[in-house]
Every structure is written in structure tokens, then in C-alpha cells.
Design brief:
Radius of gyration: 18 Å
Helix content: 25-40%
Mean pLDDT: 96
Distance between the termini: 59 Å
Bound molecules: S-adenosylmethionine
Structural class: alpha/beta
Shape: globular
Strand order of the largest sheet: 8-7-6-9-10-12-11
């Protein structure tokens, strides 16, 4: 009897990536999206939303460390942090590794993602949801920033691509409201997609954000399971220009908070803002 070999596919326009899997751990169509959690041979457990890879046990740290430590170590004293999305808990985990943090509010639209991430992805959230500094709110992130009167030092938007419930998190209105929720020295970062495959996301973000924030700087790093591999985020602030920060200043802070990492380091931090020529031309 031939053993049934299972594969999970990620389709993106004219590209299809297949991962051989040991099995499906969880699958459901929630109120908001199609949720799949599978156990892959090469990347361990993998979360997909609406058929798009969100995170895997084997490469999650590439993304979570660059999304968190770049803004947190650029900020002079990040105490109040807001995370929009981030249901797997990887961003929250890395934020709470900074001892200065007094409060980390995570606003996630789909409680199912948090529930099964606690159950099936403990290596990613690593008890972060139970930390007394963490406050988990189940709500639409755009509605939350519109209604809250809280203010934050760092806002991290860890949303999927601009499809389904996440579309509103790429709107000018949302960015303007995040800007209003930032304290002085406040920083917002968000993922802006793959350089090779999602150029429109970077162009759109640049066009909108440069009219809202004084400093808007993209940074580039690798995420193996994100389509195209070469990935980007954008750093926005009124007062902090990330290109004026030196790696020795970052190294001093890394030592102060005894931060041990697997991908991130001060050299990669500074280097990530040195963009490839084709990307600089794209933003012109
Ligand atoms: N790192 C991944 C990426 O770059 O594609 C995103 C990971 S995280 C799992 C994305 C989370 O954003 C999901 O749990 C999803 O439910 C949540 N989300 C989507 N739209 C949202 C919204 N409008 N407000 C709050 N959370 C939202």
C-alpha cells in the first residue's frame, strides 16, 4: 500500500511553493480567515492564514527579531508597546525580552489564532501570553487605535498581507491614527512584504507614510519561508532617524539588556537600512 505523501501549497500569483508535511494539526475556517496549522518535514510546525505562510518554528526568529529589536533598541526607553496582530505570539515574546517594558498590549482580531498558537506553537510564544506585562485584546486593530486613548513608545504592526481582515491595517487612516497614539520619540514599524514579489506594498507604504511621518526608512532582511525570501519592513518616527544610529550605540544597549539573539545583531541592524540599488530606485 503506497503511503499517502501529503504536501501543503502556498500559491502566490504565478508562483506555487510546496512543503512536504507529516500531517495537519489544525484546520478551520474562522469568522475571519482560513486557518491551517501543519507539521512540515523541513520547517517544523507552520501556520498558514488564507493559504499564506505566516510563521514556522524553523525560521520565525528571522522575522520576529528584526521586527522587534530594530525599533526597541533604536528607542531611548521603550516602556509602552502596542502590537497589532501578532496572533502567534512571536512578536510579543521578543518585546517582553526588553526589561524596560512595563506594558505590552497585543490587539489580535482572531482569538482562534491565539488559542491554537498557545496549544501547538509553544516554542514560538514561549509563555509570553501569560506574562503579567502582557494585555491581550481581541479586536480589530484599526478600530482599537481609533478608540483607545492610550499612547505608546513603540507600535509594531505584525499583520498578514493586505488581504481579508488585514486590508484596513494598510490604510492611510490607520497610519494617521497610529501616528496620533505615539509618544514623543515614538516609533512605528510594520512588515512591507517581499522585495521581489510584493513591490506594490513598498511603493504604496512609502507614498502614504512619507506624508505622515518625518522619518520613513525601509529595512531589508531575509525570511526563508516568506515568498521571495528577501523581505522588508518600514521604520517610521517623528524624531528618530534610524540611519543616524551607530552600531556601537546599539551594541551598548544589547549588552545592557543582555539580549541574546539568533539572527539579529547590531551589524545586521545598521546594515539592513543600506538598501539594494533597485529598491532605492523603486522608492524614488
Ligand atoms: N508575520 C506574519 C506576516 O508577516 O505575514 C503575520 C503573522 S500574525 C499571525 C498576523 C495576525 O494578524 C493574524 O493572527 C491575524 O488574525 C491578525 N490580523 C489580521 N487582520 C487584523 C486586524 N484588522 N486587526 C488585528 N489583527 C489582525
Amino acid at each position: 500500500m503506497t503511503k499517502h505523501v501529503q504536501w501543503v501549497k502556498e500559491k502566490w500569483k504565478n508562483i506555487e511553493t510546496r512543503y512536504r508535511i507529516k500531517g495537519v494539526l489544525y484546520e478551520e475556517k474562522s469568522e475571519f480567515q482560513h486557518i491551517q496549522l501543519v507539521d512540515t518535514h523541513e520547517y517544523g510546525k507552520m501556520l498558514l492564514l488564507d493559504g499564506i505562510v505566516q510563521t514556522t518554528e524553523k525560521d520565525e526568529f528571522f522575522y520576529h527579531e528584526m521586527m522587534v529589536h530594530v525599533p526597541m533598541l533604536a528607542h531611548p526607553d521603550p516602556k509602552q508597546v502596542l502590537i497589532i496582530g501578532g496572533g502567534d505570539g512571536g512578536i510579543l515574546r521578543e518585546v517582553l525580552r526588553h526589561p524596560q517594558v512595563e506594558k505590552a498590549v497585543m490587539v489580535e482580531i482572531d482569538s482562534n489564532v491565539v488559542d491554537f498558537s498557545k496549544k501547538y506553537l509553544p516554542s514560538i510564544n514561549n509563555g509570553a501570553f501569560e506574562d503579567e506585562r502582557a494585555k491581550i485584546v481581541f479586536a480589530d486593530g484599526a478600530e482599537y487605535v481609533e478608540k483607545t486613548n492610550g499612547t505608546y513608545d513603540v507600535v509594531i504592526v505584525d499583520s498578514p498581507d493586505p488581504i481579508g481582515p488585514a486590508r484596513v491595517l494598510f490604510s492611510e487612516k490607520f497610519y494617521v491614527q497610529v501616528h496620533q497614539r505615539l509618544n514623543s520619540n515614538g516609533i512605528m514599524v510594520r512588515q512591507t512584504g517581499s522585495l521581489q514579489i510584493q513591490a506594490d506594498e513598498q511603493k504604496q507604504a512609502h507614498k502614504v507614510l512619507k506624508n505622515i511621518f518625518t522619518h520613513v526608512a525601509f529595512y531589508v532582511y531575509c525570511v526563508p519561508t516568506y515568498i521571495g525570501g528577501l523581505f522588508s519592513s518600514v521604520f517610521c518616527s517623528e524624531s528618530i532617524n534610524p540611519k543616524n544610529i551607530r552600531s556601537d550605540e546599539i551594541q551598548t544597549k544589547v549588552t545592557e539588556v543582555s539580549l541574546e539573539t539568533t539572527y539579529y545583531n547590531p551589524g545586521i541592524h545598521i546594515g539592513s537600512f543600506h538598501l539594494p540599488e533597485f529598491f532605492k530606485n523603486r522608492l524614488k
